[in-house]
Design goal:
alpha+beta, 4 helices
């Protein structure tokens, strides 16, 4: 069949993010856009690529420049792939099926979760069966549009690494690592969270650790939790700078509708 080609170039000096994203703070975006589209005539096979250049976050008092962003998206009946690069940020999404199959799967998963919350039950196998097959990877440092907007909101970090995957066979798996997360006067040197799902349930293990010389508050907080068909368990352990355990707390909650 025939192919469709389109190119769009636009200079947007001020896009009102406060109105679009329902933000509390006054914030606008200035950007130059370049988009290239290639698609089959029935739009079953689409490739979109381009760049956002000269990015500026505009507040009432100042302009915050950010690194240029490039992206490409390809989707057809078999697979969907998306890549974004901006400064030291890299994002990749790979999934089975076209975009509508992914969004339908996420909507079905959300509907199942809502149903279970309404009936106060836990059935992670039913949620898993609704999951689309996808993998999401994000790595970022402190020089990219995401870090700039977070810093404007008072949140800073040195590094971030997120890897998440879903599938109807393996469920939800992945990890999240954040280095030097700072919010106001609070600095957390390292945060980590690991997720894995099997037929027994969903397990989440996490740790917050302060250990660097510039951080006077040295401690380690460990989390071990699991969501099972009939209950949820959480275990917290706190260790001071000498490794002495100060808190050892376990919590258990039963699902009223659980088996």
């Amino acid at each position: 069949g025939r192919e469709i080609f389109a190119t769009l170039t636009a200079d947007l000096p001020e896009v009102n993010l406060q109105r679009i994203a329902a933000l509390k703070d006054t914030l606008s975006l200035g950007v130059a856009c370049n988009l290239d589209l290639k698609a089959s005539d029935d739009f079953s096979d689409i490739r979109l690529g381009g760049a956002l250049e000269n990015i500026r976050f505009l507040t009432p008092k100042r302009s915050i420049p950010a690194k240029d962003l490039t992206f490409d998206l390809a989707t057809n009946s078999d697979t969907t792939e998306a890549h974004i690069n901006a400064g030291d940020l890299t994002l990749a999404l790979n999934a089975q099926g076209a975009i509508d199959r992914i969004t339908d799967g996420l909507a079905a998963m959300g509907g199942e979760l809502s149903r279970q919350m309404t009936h106060k039950i836990i059935d992670l196998e039913a949620v898993k069966a609704k999951m689309p097959t996808l993998a999401f990877n994000l790595t970022a440092g402190a020089d990219n549009p995401l870090s700039k907007i977070m810093l404007y909101k008072g949140i800073g970090y040195r590094s971030a690494d997120v890897k998440l995957a879903t599938s109807p066979t393996d469920g939800l798996t992945g990890h999240i690592h954040v280095g030097a997360l700072k919010n106001g006067g609070v600095l957390l040197d390292a945060l980590s969270l690991a997720l894995r799902q099997d037929t027994a349930g969903l397990k989440m293990d996490g740790e917050i650790k302060n250990y660097t010389k510039k951080n006077p508050n040295h401690f380690t907080l460990q989390l071990a939790s699991e969501i099972l068909p009939s209950e949820a368990n959480v275990h917290l352990a706190f260790f001071d700078d000498a490794g002495r355990k100060g808190i050892d707390l376990g919590l258990r909650a039963e699902a009223p509708g659980g088996e």
